[in-house]
Amino acid sequence: MIWVTACMALCLVVIIALRSAEVPLSASDWPVTARAPLSRPEQALYWRLCEAFPGHIVLAQVAVAQLLEVDEIPNRRAIFNRYRRLVADFVVCTQAFDTVAVIELEDRAHQNPGRASADKCKSAALGAAGILLMRFNVRSLPTAGELRSHLASLPSAAPLPEASPDRDSQRRTVAA
Question: What pTM did the predictor assign?
Fold first, then answer.
């Protein structure tokens, strides 16, 4: 009798586990709505970055893990875990997808202690890899000219090549 009860209990546990692992397929099972991938200030900065750096590729909301690779060391996974959930607001790349700079847009949320800690981690990780990080406040977005000047004034910044007219017009067509 104990065997029968134990088997029935085991079967019940397996059935419950299988049902809870099922992915809802009906739209009514997903209480979500679509939203813009970038906030209004992020959209404004995105277009200014495109204008400031013609001939370059501007990526938005990029996982920092896509920009960094941990050296082959014993605690590699622990180092990776420090930054694996961090996201860069914008990444400016050359046509060869070499990173020119990471651009962060800061608002009041960055004053939160947890957010500030994540920002420090992001700064440290990108700095260790030699990736330029520029931060701008959401209340005073730089113009395209200010972005260009700011990047050119930094000692670690490589000179930005001028865009060819053909590449620039192709980029604008794709981005629009």
Answer: 0.72
